[in-house]
Amino acid sequence: MAWTENEILLNQRPTMQSRELFQAVCDELAKYYVKKGFKYTRSKPAITYQDKEIKLQIGFSSSRSNISGSHVVLEILPNIYTINPEKRILKQIFGEILEFEPSSENDTAVEENHNCNIWNIDEHKFKKILEFINESILPMIDMVKGEDGIIKFLEDKPKYIYPSLKGENVNSDFVPFCNLKFPDLNIEQLLSK
User: Fold this and answer.
1) Is residue 48 within 8 Å of 59, Cβ to Cβ?
2) Residue 185's closest CA among 153, 141, 163?
3) Rounded to whole angstroms, what are the CA distances from 35 to 4, 28, 30, 122?
4) Could you give the CA distance from residue 46 to residue 30 in angstroms, rounded to a whole number?
5) What is the mean pLDDT of residues 27-37?
6) What do you get for the CA distance between the two ends of the chain, in Å?
7) What is the C-alpha separation between 44 and 59, in angstroms, rounded?
8) pTM, full prediction
C-alpha cells in the first residue's frame, strides 16, 4: 500500500510546478493532523490546534527561489498564542537540527533550522516532517503553560536566540507573556544569563 493516495506526491515529474508540489505536501500534512484535532486552512496553508489556554498555529511556507524538478522548500513556521489576546506569545521554532561550528565559546554546537527540501518527497521524508512537528513543536503547548516548562524551554535553547525572545529586531511577545502569566519568574533575569 502506498504511503499516500495523492497522485501529485506519488508521480512527481521535473516539469511540475513548485507550487503544485508544495500544496500537495501541505494537504497531506493536514490529513494527518486533522485526525489529531487540528483545523486546516488551505488558502494560506496552516494547521491550528486550540485548547482552553493555548493556540498553536503551524504555518507552511515556500520560497521564491524554488527550482522545479530539483529543490522545493517547505518552511515550517510554528507560532504559539494564549487564548486571551492580551497574553499573546509569538514563538518561532527552527525545525530540523543541523550541526555547525560554534563562533565563540558561548555558542551552542547545534543551531536549529526549520526548512527542508520537499522535492522527490517520499514516505520516509514525509515521516521526518511529521516527526519534526510532533517532537519539536507540539510539546511547546504544555511547556509554556508552567514556570518549570518555561525554564526547561530556555535551557534547551541556544543563548543566541535570547535577543529575539526579548523582542530585539523581531515581533515577539515572549517576555510580556511570561511577565503576565508568571509574574514571579523574572524572565528578564533568565534571558540575561
Assistant:
1) no
2) 153
3) 15, 12, 8, 21
4) 8
5) 94
6) 52
7) 8
8) 0.57
Q: d(Cα 179, Cα 185) in Å, to the nearest integer?
A: 7
Cell readout for 78 is 510554528
Whether the CB-CB separation of 20 and 4 falls below 8 Å is answered with no
Contact 80, 110 (CB under 8 A): no
β-bridge mates for residue 40, sequence order: 47
Grid coordinates standing for 38?
Answer: 487540528
Residue among 68, 70, 72, 71 nearest 15 (CA): 68
Minimal CA–CA distance to 41: which of 24, 54, 58? Answer: 58
Residue 49 neighbours by CB under 8 Å, 6+ apart = 33, 36, 37, 38, 55, 56, 138, 141
* Average pLDDT of the residues of the chain: 76
Helix (H) or strand (E) holding 49: strand 46-50
DSSP 57-103: EEEEE--TT-BTTTB-EEEEEEEEEESSTTS--------SEEE---S
Place of cell 550541526: 99
In the predicted model, what is the mean pLDDT of residues 67-88? 73
Amino acid identity for residue 143 in this structure: M
Q: How far is it, in rounded angstroms, from Cα 111 to Cα 140?
A: 18
